[in-house]
Design goal:
Length: 212
Amino acid sequence: MSDTFEVVAEPRTDGGKGASRRLRRQGLVPGIVYGGHRDPQMVSVQHSELYRQLDYEAFYSSLLDLKLEGETAQVVLKDLQRHPSKPFVIHVDFQRVSAKDKLRMSVPLHFENEDTSVGVKAGGAVSHNLTEVEITCLPKDLPEYIAVDMARVDMGDSILVSDLKLPEGVELTYAMEPDTTVVSIYAPYAGEETEGAEGEEGEGAGGDITPE
């Protein structure tokens, strides 16, 4: 896990669309903090600071230090509403965490050794069916991501949800079907170029192709 992110919030008392619009005009994002066996509390956070932190993938799946009215509470980001056409966040939800209560979170998948896997070296193309999975765990066990090692995946092979190597204390939720394909390597259709093939042809010219 990385260093904990810090979110500074201020309490707010006015609800409704009109109050939320006024906050946004002031450069603030309306939000709510709930859970942790306490009443929900309406808050606001600085848009510029929140938007900066959203550039970090780990922000979405890490414990966050929420500073509010002189107190610090650990929370996780549970919901984020963005403007449909503009680079603005219009609402944010945080959930308080308790050391004894399990969290239900979506965490990203990191595909390791993809460009050097057996199947890609043989000219295969990679197809990602999932980019994140839903897990349950105690806050202390929350991973930033789940690693998927593709080094030995051959052309025609797949990695299923049941094949994922989960950190200790982490379980998949019942929403994840064990036989769901996570990623596969397939033989490209006629005329379809692959990253692996292009990489081999361009190797002499020093051209590396970086996967997404």
